[in-house]
Amino acid sequence: MKIVDLIKRDMVVPALVATDKRGILEELAAYMASHHPRIDRAMLAKVLIEREQLASTAIGEGVAIPHGKLGAVGEIVACLGRAPGGVEFDSMDGQPTYLFFVLVAPESSTGAHLKALARISRVFKDPEFRRRLLAAGDAESMYSVVADEDAKY
To answer: What's the rounded Cα separation, in Å, for the pair 114 and 104?
Structure first.
């Protein structure tokens, strides 16, 4: 599974403005809803926030993978966001979170959803990949970093 199969070029937000966990999730939900007419912003925000209440999706090293399921989507959709100043996201390592990769899967999805989470988690463990994403100047550059990394596999 390739990350570029999940995320489209217009689904990269290089400068999230929210400064807390709830705000980040609401901002990402709003962005995704504005690009996917079938996604309801409030419903997606609710799903992501409820998932975070179970356990933080921040996996450490500045990365979080918020995720959830919605009946409104027919396939997995994704969004990559960056908070340049970092946000407290209850990360496993106690450090701020800068990179957010949101995955939204259909309610019926199981295997593909889990494979996508595993793939993203594995790629984001690479410190050089994270460094390049954080240094990228804009959304197009961030997408290119993801595409370049994907080409290695």
So the answer is: 11
Contact 79, 61 (CB under 8 A): no
Identified catalytic residue from 35, 36, 67, 113: 67
Q: Please state the domain count of the chain.
A: 1
The total of other beta-carbon atoms located within 10 Å of residue 137's CB is: 8
Task: Look up 36 and say whether it is catalytic.
Answer: no
Number of Cβ within a 10 Å radius of residue 49: 16
Which regions in the chain score pLDDT beneath 70? none
**Mean pLDDT for the chain overall:** 95
Contact 66, 100 (CB under 8 A): yes
Domain that holds residue 33: 3-151
End-to-end CA distance of the chain: 9
Can you give the CATH number for the domain in which 56 is found?
3.40.930.10
